[in-house]
Design goal:
Blueprint lengths: L1 H12 L12 E9 L2 E10 L2 E11 L9 H15 L1 H4 L3 E6 L15 H10 L3 E6 L6 H4 L11 H20 L10 H8 L4 E4 L2 E7 L6 E6 L5 H10 L8 H9 L2 E2 L3 H10 L2 H6 L21 E7 L11 E7 L5 E6 L4 H16 L4 E4 L3 H4 L1 H10 L2 E4 L9 H17 L11 H9 L11
Parallel strand pairs: 1-4, 4-5, 8-9, 10-13, 13-14
Antiparallel strand pairs: 1-2, 2-3, 6-7, 7-8, 10-11, 11-12
Helix pairs in contact: 9-10
InterPro entries: DNA/RNA_pol_sf (IPR043502), Integrase_cat-core (IPR001584), Integrase_H2C2 (IPR041588), Retrovirus_Pol_polyprotein (IPR050951), RNaseH-like_sf (IPR012337), RNaseH_sf (IPR036397), RT_RNaseH (IPR041373)
Protein name: RNA-directed DNA polymerase
Organism: Penaeus vannamei (Whiteleg shrimp)
Length: 442
């Protein structure tokens, strides 16, 4: 710890010089709005050089986080002006922003409400708004746009994948291995302009339709496709998920001709999935999506079981799921008494993610007991319940129960005495997969 503090002090001393603005210096206020936070930097230009005067950062309040992008940028400007008022009042300064829409501040016609009050407050300052591209707006954006270090897991994961694939291509890069009549070869030749060879790794250009950004996908040799499919679908943390989620896991890092068709065939012929897949049930109508506006606004809880008693004495699973993010939590329990369920929710869910505003469950005796209701009252949780004999009223968590039980059946031993050891792995697989209702991973 002392060495870390010394290193931090030394780094601070070698950093940007903190200057005092003089009478002949010009001031520049730089601001940024990223991921619910406001960041501002006050710069003093002296003798053709710029020196940092001070930094300022704060979190947006809950109502402010609901603003549109332009209003958030303007809110960041107002917070910066309020914090640096003693520097900026009476001085001529420049507001540098990477949001071009703020250039109309002095020319906006007929402002109303909050915007009018903000513009009226701005009139007391002598300022100019200058737009600067985000790539050079590092003074205010540096905290939110730190580059990944080479030893960072997020950085090295793709690097290791490139290295592994490069070795694959060296193994298969023989003239005899290239089959001119192969449909995959013909397709890649037709897409020649989208291909690139970098450090011995073949890549294909792909443009994301939702963002318009260009990405490079690693083209995997056909001889390695089976291994990738086995790892992504049958791996110990993969969960034997369906076709759509398996494709989503594979698509962004790697690519090969006929990827989707191969995934469909692999999932269709998977013996583990076929043995545990139940008959398709036709429902009268699809479940309706409950509208939740924020994480932990509403949470559903349910008990699954009983299952065969494990070596650790567990027979039930308590499942909790957030309506907004679809984040699941589950834990193996020896019984489903009210005290046991309440202890699991408090120690494993509420203390980690916060107390939900509303907790929804069925009319099981563990959820309707005096102990559980008193726990909800002390924590300020509004307790709701389903109608009698109507599990569809709690359909989200009931559906996840079916998914979790199916996943456990595919991985546990034949005697089924180790199913509780696989619960964390199945949770990891579900959280890492894109949810069909939201379009994002939990």
């Amino acid at each position: 710890m002392p060495s870390s503090l010394c290193s931090l002090e030394a780094s601070s001393g070698r950093g940007t010089s903190i200057a005092i603005p003089g009478s002949q210096s010009s001031l520049h206020l730089r601001h940024s709005r990223q991921s619910g936070r406001c960041r501002c930097g006050l710069v003093s230009a002296q003798r053709c050089q710029e020196y940092m005067v001070a930094y300022y950062s704060c979190k947006f309040s809950k109502p402010e986080r609901n603003y549109c992008v332009t209003r958030k940028e303007l809110a960041a400007v107002m917070k910066g002006l309020s914090h640096f008022h003693h520097y900026l009042y009476g001085a001529q300064f420049t507001i540098r922003t990477d949001h071009a829409a703020l250039r109309w501040l002095k020319t906006l016609k007929e402002p109303e409400g909050q915007l009018a009050r903000w513009l009226e407050k701005l009139e007391q300052y002598n300022y100019q708004v200058v737009h600067r591209a985000g790539r050079v707006h590092s003074n205010a954006d540096s905290l939110s746009r730190r580059p990944c270090e080479p030893d960072c897991n997020h950085y090295s994961c793709r690097a290791r994948l490139r290295s592994a694939v490069g070795g694959w291509w060296q193994e298969t890069a023989t003239v005899g291995g290239c089959i001119p009549e192969s449909p995959a070869t013909k397709f890649l030749v037709d897409q020649w302009k989208t291909l690139c060879l970098e450090n011995g790794v073949l890549q294909r250009s792909w443009v994301d339709a939702s963002t318009g950004k260009q990405q490079w996908l690693i083209v995997a040799p056909l001889s390695r496709c089976e291994g990738l499919l086995k790892e992504v679908h049958n791996g110990k943390t993969s969960g034997h998920l369906g076709i759509k989620r398996t494709v989503e896991k594979l698509w962004r890092p790697v690519y090969w001709v006929g990827l989707r068709q191969d995934v469909q065939e692999w999932c269709r012929t998977c013996q583990v999935c076929a043995a545990k897949r139940g008959p398709a049930q036709k429902t009268c109508a699809p479940l309706q999506l409950y509208q939740a506006g924020a994480p932990m606004e509403r949470m559903a809880v349910d008990i699954a079981g009983p299952f065969p008693c494990t070596e650790r004495g567990n027979k039930y699973i308590c499942v909790a799921m957030d309506y907004f993010s679809k984040w699941p939590e589950a834990g193996a329990l020896p019984n489903h008494e009210a005290e046991t369920v309440a202890e699991f929710l408090v120690t494993q869910v509420f203390t980690r993610f916060g107390v939900p505003g509303e907790l929804h469950s069925d009319q099981g005796r563990e959820f309707e007991s005096r102990v559980f209701r008193e726990c909800c009252r002390l924590l300020g949780i509004h307790k709701t319940r389903t109608t009698p004999l109507r599990p569809q009223s709690d359909g989200m968590v009931e559906r996840y129960n079916a998914t979790l039980v199916t996943q456990l059946a595919k991985y546990c031993e034949e005697d089924q005495y180790d199913w509780d050891e696989w619960v964390p792995n199945m949770l990891m697989a579900y959280r890492a997969a894109e949810h069909e209702a939201t379009g994002f991973t939990p």
